Amino acid sequence: MTYVLETERLRMREFTLADTAFIIELLNSPGWLEFIGDRNVHTPEQARLYLENGPLKSYQVHGYGLSMVERKDDGMPVGMCGVLNRDTLECPDIGFAFLPAHHAQGYAFEIAQATLDHAKETLGLPRVAAITVPGNSRSIRLLEKLGLRYVRSFSSPGSDELLSYYCS
Fold it and tell me: Are strands 161-167 and 128-132 parallel, antiparallel or unpaired?
């Protein structure tokens, strides 16, 4: 298995089609549904399509994308993190989501900081953004702790208000 990056407690690897069960669990977790939205991924086939048209396609097109975050000590999948390219933003952005059982353990900060470092040092991205909804206080705190600064709010077609953050 090839890992995108490793931290003290975590490692991040590219998703494979074998990760459909995890995708179904994560995309239907309460935080995902509340703050990211229902992606209608409830079956292995829908999860396969999500992976093929999302992370796997991004790896091919951009050379990076959302990746599986696992604990080093036992290989337990805890969430996803990575860099995305969205049409609504002027530069790539960092995204992350974790299963509820793995909240409040410092995993999100640990892997997101490593991802930002990787984006700048390895991928050579001069600027990275992040977006979140106004009510997602945990995400806002994490973005600020990572050194990203609030820039503006905006709405993209078919979405509610979003807050944009940037680091350079």
Answer: antiparallel
